[in-house]
Amino acid sequence: MTARVIVLDAKPLSTEDVAEIARRNARLVLGEEAMRRIRASRALIEHLTQLGKPLYGVTTGLGACVDTPLAQADLIAFQHSVPLSHSMGAGPSLPTEAVRALMVARICGMAAGGTGTSEGVVLGLLAALNAGVHPVIPSWGSVGAADLAPLGHLARALRGDGESEYQGRIMPSAEALKLAGLEPLDLREKDGHAIIVANSLSTGTACLALEEVACLI
Question: One of 10, 56, 85, 144 is an active-site residue; which one?
């Protein structure tokens, strides 16, 4: 049976759409308006970065280091360090449907045009979702204010670090990406920060819970 195709464009996905992708492996496609918003927000980040403006998590540190400027030569390396410093989850791994729901929710957030994420990173995350590369993400470590730890594990795995599930087997993420014919994410300015600062696990799993509730009503 051919998988259903769901298009994310000018209108947001419904909770039913998220569940269809997460649980029944529907394919997600980005429409023209979604791509336009992704490119526009990225162009703004690149413009402000070139101007040397203080940008939180882009040209400055995070948290208590907000007033610490980053050297131009360190901007890319900093984005690679952000997922490493935040992927501190523990406990049993999330079920595959929760990981897929998280991935869908993060793509939706990026496609809204407010994150400034590189187009290649958004498309890489989308490709991993549609190919069935599912990062192994510990289930403990988030209170929902921002799902920093789970999304840190997501970013690390799609860079080729940590472990992922692919075709029913847990393996090194680098191997899973290779078997799926995908390249590790190439993080640029803001990308590491943009991936982790969101409520994607909370949002995605809420969509799954709503589908279950609807079945009971």
Answer: 56
